[in-house]
What does this fold into?
Amino acid sequence: MRFKIHLGPILPPPPGSGGHFEPKGSRHVAFMELPPKHHSDYERSSDSSEHNPHCFACGMRTFMCIFVFFLLLLVIGAIFISFLYAGLPRVQIRRFEFSKLNISEKISNTSNSTSTSGKVHLTADTDILMVFRNRNGISKLKYGSFSVKVSWQDIKLGRTEIAAFTQDKNNSTTFSLRTRVEEQEVDLEDLNELKTELENENAVFHLALRGDLGFNFGSLNVHGLPTSINCNPKKQQIDLARRPRCRVRLFPV
It folds into this structure.
């Protein structure tokens, strides 16, 4: 079945229409382009959403690398310190005795009496024999000068110094030290207690040494490490030749 559509002649535009004629039923279709700014904003937002996971992953990898690096440094440092502690010398007290112990009869708080209370003056010479032993067969030890302080409770028994020296592997060095106090004011009660402990051979003295220590591992030299040596010899142990050991520490607080 066929249909035929007959279109009549197109009539000219009416007067006053300006020569423009638009047939009825015609439609206008407008195309609008987004400004460049809108395109860039859209692309930037899509790019940022795509790159954010990658940036987070990169940050995590960097953090993990730094963490592992510092962890390795700590482990290496701990191993190195342990190695140094294994090479520390052994220090012992072989002899500790008073070669002189005098108490003046003058009492500080009275003029011409010998009361059993108050303060008296002490003059004492202390002789000490110390042994430093380098037990390791790997490194030499280089000792800086060490200050030595001797005391019993609150009574100071003098100070001295050990000069710097070097010790070979598997070697021992012995020092004979003497400290002295002269006319030192002390409590009479404390001095009487010291005399009683000396008679009973249970007096415990304190030696404090402060200085620095170095290690020579062939071409590797580590010098100037702060070192403390603390000894608490008991008179009875020394008399029995037990040679009490001292505590040697690096980096004392």
Notes: Residues 110-115 have pLDDT under 50 and may be disordered.
